[in-house]
Write a structure and sequence with these properties.
alpha+beta, two-stranded antiparallel sheet, about 270 residues, globular, 6 helices
Length: about 270
């Protein structure tokens, strides 16, 4: 539960505007994963499903007086890419993740994560799971004309703040807000949202793939990140169960954030029984 907000019934969106979905499981560092040879057994298990491979430097984001900069951590991440370059399994010294730009269904994401965690348990036996997160990055695109009117028709005015007020909205050029919520179960839900009238995207190109043209239409960012930061034993089944709970919570917040008319007429919502 999120305060007094009832869980939204399950639905699909025929025309969702998801830019990226990531499910990441962090665990106690396994130092032998610094050595590429230690990854070979893992690759043998996944390379039929993810034949592509990339070795990339792991970077950390540092806030400096000059802004946010990337800093090489000195470690490597191993990226295993599916044949369509639409889903990537990423293995690092202290995490495993599934990333997709072509979201199909939560069951597909969770099944891939469960399989990846099962292999991590088998080959590396980390002592603990230190964090589990599920993130949905929505970039809701609009026409440039009457942009603010379209946004007010699509989104909950309680989310929009000044942009939701017709008397103030004409003066608003852009917005950026962060909301952090705590659920009854103790996990965290962070929402980054705001109007981006210049277009573009918040998602970096998939490494190793041909970059797609950057969309130029204005968009409203709805970036939901649900995570559990407390250390617990690593278990593939527990990861799958918790990720499904996170999905319910994110769906509920998405339904609260958007209007039923927008989801039905623009996104093509279909309820699941």
């Amino acid at each position: 539960m999120i305060a007094n907000l009832p869980v939204a019934p399950r639905f699909t969106l025929q025309r969702h505007q998801l830019a990226q979905v990531i499910c990441q499981v962090r665990f106690s560092p396994v130092l032998r994963l610094h050595q590429q040879v230690e990854v070979a057994p893992f690759q043998e298990e996944v390379r039929d499903r993810y034949p592509g491979f990339l070795l990339e430097p792991a970077v950390a984001l540092m806030i400096t007086p000059q802004g946010v900069v990337q800093q090489d951590t000195g470690t490597k991440n191993y990226r295993f890419v599916d044949p369509d370059a639409s889903v990537v399994l990423v293995l690092g010294v202290d995490f495993v993740a599934i990333e997709t730009r072509e979201y199909v269904a939560i069951e597909d994401v969770i099944e891939r994560v469960r399989d990846a965690v099962t292999l991590v348990e088998r080959f590396y036996r980390p002592a603990q799971r230190t964090r589990l997160g599920l993130r949905f990055t929505n970039e809701l695109r609009f026409e440039p004309d009457n942009l603010q009117t379209q946004v007010r028709e699509a989104l909950n005015p309680q989310l929009l703040g000044p942009l939701g007020d017709p008397d103030v909205a004409p003066a608003v050029e852009t917005t950026q807000s962060v909301i952090q919520l705590r659920t009854e179960a103790g996990n965290v839900l962070q929402v980054i949202h705001g109007l981006n009238p210049q277009g573009g995207t918040t998602v970096l190109p998939m490494p190793g793939s041909t970059p797609s043209p950057v969309p130029q239409e204005p968009f409203y960012l709805l970036d939901f990140d649900a995570y559990a930061p407390d250390p617990v034993p690593l278990s593939a089944d527990a990861v799958a169960d918790q990720a499904m709970v996170f999905n319910d919570q994110i769906r509920t917040l998405f339904a609260w954030s958007t209007t039923a008319e927008y989801r039905s007429s623009v996104l093509g919502q279909r309820d699941l029984t």
